Predict the structure.
Amino acid sequence: MYVFLFLKNNFSVVLFLFRSVEHTDGQSVLTDSLWRRYSEFELLRNYLLVYYPHIVVPPLPEKRAEFVWHKLSADNMDPDFVERRRIGLENFLLRIASHPILCRDKIFYLFLTQEGNWKETVNETGFQLKADSRLKALNATFRVKNPDKRFTDLKHYSDELQSVISHLLRVRARVADRLYGVYKVHGNYGRVFSEWSAIEKEMGDGLQSAGHHMDVYASSIDDILEDEEHYADQLKEYLFYAEALRAVCRKHELMQYDLEMAAQDLASKKQQCEELATGTVRTFSLKGMTTKLFGQETPEQREARIKVLEEQINEGEQQLKSKNLEGREFVKNAWADIERFKEQKNRDLKEALISYAVMQISIRLHLVWTNSYLCLSEL
Amino acid sequence: MWAGCPLLVAHLPVYLSVLGIPLVTVTAANTLVVLDLILPNGGTPAGTSSPASSSSLLNRLQLDDDIDGETRDLFVIVDDPKKHVCTMETYITYRITTKSTRVEFDLPEYSVRRRYQDFDWLRSKLEESQPTHLIPVGKSHCLFVAHTMHQGAALLAAGAYEVGTGSSKPLPEKFVVKGVVDRFSEEFVETRRKALDKFLKRITDHPVLSFNEHFNVFLTAKDLNAYKKQGIALLTRMGESVKHVTGGYKLRTRPLEFAAIGDYLDTFALKLGTIDRIAQRIIKEEIEYLVELREYGPVYSTWSALEGELAEPLEGVSACIGNCSTALEELTDDMTEDFLPVLREYILYSDSMKPCILASLFHKALKLKNLSVLKKRDQVQAEYEAKLEAVALRKEDRPKVPADVEKCQDRMECFNADLKADMERWQNNKRQDFRQLLMGMADKNIQYYEKCLMAWESIIPLLQEKQEAKHLSLAEINRHDLEIMVTVERLVPFGILLILEDIVSAATNHVETKNSIDDSGIKYYS
């Protein structure tokens, strides 16, 4: 399946059109094409986050331009920014489409195919409630007694990764700014050499062409920095991915905590039951106190209480069992996806670094030529 | 190096008497020996009708301004500054060492001590005795002029220029002690020494000035003051009246050529000034860029510490950026230490040329005996020109040119020719100097970019390690193309030049041997 995104500007709203082109029998058939707003992409992602907590869900491109250097406007309507966002959204859909689990999701399929009422369909799943509770839980503070070292390490890694990539993007923006300054000032040489050549006889031609090359040099920076933005975008994707990774770790923590609480609850209930059964009071309880003060309860009352407790204990044990199972399933699936993610990350970032290096080389080539001309033209 | 010529021999006595130089001058003796005229291209000149001046002919005959060591027979060095404290004053002297094989020098080697005053004396003597030649002026001249005209402020301004050598720091706080330039600070003395050395070297290089007898005495005499006193009575009036003349007299028939030269020098100095400012600004921007780069590189190292498989590639990128930073630092240092000072010296040099020309002009005017004669000449000239105009209107035959007007015209032509020759010589020098300067700048830039290129190229294999060979990604396709480009680019440092067609036509001296065109339409020489 192929997905392509196109842009349509409508005053203050930017809409995205995409077509799924399906190859049937070697022929490409244009099937659905519909409009989606940025907010609908957000909705899709939130839905996936809720229903696939063990998956590192691909991130969306930034809504507003961050880490800008002075030339780029922070204006969301700036055509360069909009184009880069379009590419980001295309990337987002392609990543989901190529994910072994996510690509089978129904809501995702409908996102690509259902023209109207897609939003309602999503809301009908009742995901909004779950989304809210998820957010609340993620932001809550709690302490896990037996944390899984792998996940703790991974969470730590994702925090560090976010921090280092942010720092990198900030400094890169400053570097771009300075480099822009260097190139542009060289443009002044162009003007001066040209003026100077006017008063010279033998040196005139040489100075003139030297000046021309200075102009070319100065204007080359715009394309260079545009290319560098693509590199920055690739880094940004992984900055946001780090957040998604962190969310999975947090989810695991949550589950672990839940499990521990349930186990703890079960243990105390069992103890209560035991105490009632044997008559020994090892732990302080209000019931115990009142019993002491106001006389012991009747055996029937005690029996009733034990029965209730035993029921609760049974329930509790069932719950704990399923929670344990859930937990193990989660860990298994999450870890599988994390491995997949790690490989993808290594691949993608290596590619990004290679193309960055290649880009640096191609800049240098151009400049070396320019300066050679300056040399030669002074004959 | 110099070939004599029959024409020169014939006219020399007349010319020399006009200038007031005794016939004993070295020049005549040397050139009388060789009679055959040898020109660089091997031919002989057709007869020249106008009286040729010694200097212009000699200049035309001179093969190349780049005098190599073997043909040079006079070497002068200024060094070893020493402070002298006397009851009346404190001053600095410099040692002048001269080595020469010329017959004008009794000994092969001389070592004398001179102070700034002496240099100034030499300069004024040269201007007086050979007013038709441009006297080289070092930075010290600026200081002298400033001193006599506007004290304090001008001195500081001149000082600001002087500090330009070696560092990009602004005004010399070190020089200034309570608003007065510290003449005895090490930096000042050294800067002045360099300027004086350059000054003497320029005279040494000059084909006529280097044979001046005052120059000879300056280099050799044990007691210069005694010699100075000799000529004072005769020449005081001349020397001092420069300033009076500059203020009072207006040369009505100032040759157009000098106006043009004056304008050219003004514009030239302006452009140089602008280039200086731009160069400074570029260096400033580059330094700020460097600061950011120095922070950028290490962040990749920090990241590398977090990663497993990516650790090596990220560390590689960090090291690469570090190398580029170092290369950039070297570039900015070179520009600050080499490019800027030389440029600034040229600005000063061309600044001082214009007053020099005017001074020479007025000296010449003075040499034509006295003002009344010149006024008479102007009157006669005006009459003559009026007649010419009238004739032109009536289309009659031209009247005969009055004899004394003709004589004056001859002298003016001599004067013009001299100055023109010197200007050409200066132009050539300037062209060579700037060619060297600008090529040097371009070369430094190329070196910087080549270093960066190498750094980035070296990490590509590192990054490509363990890449799974899937479908050719876009990046890989680009890389393949670039490998071709890289191969072509490699040839540049080894003497093969990449030239665009329009520049080829401008570079007339180039001879095209073999050339081939690659896909992108660029010709390159093999």
Q: What stands out?
A: Residues 1-70, 137-179, 232-254, 468-526 of chain B have pLDDT under 50 and may be disordered. The domain at 255-372+403-468 of chain B is CATH 1.20.1270.60 (Substrate Binding Domain Of Dnak; Chain:A; Domain 2). Residues 84 and 91 of chain B are 5 Å apart (CA to CA). Chain B is about 65% helix and 10% strand.
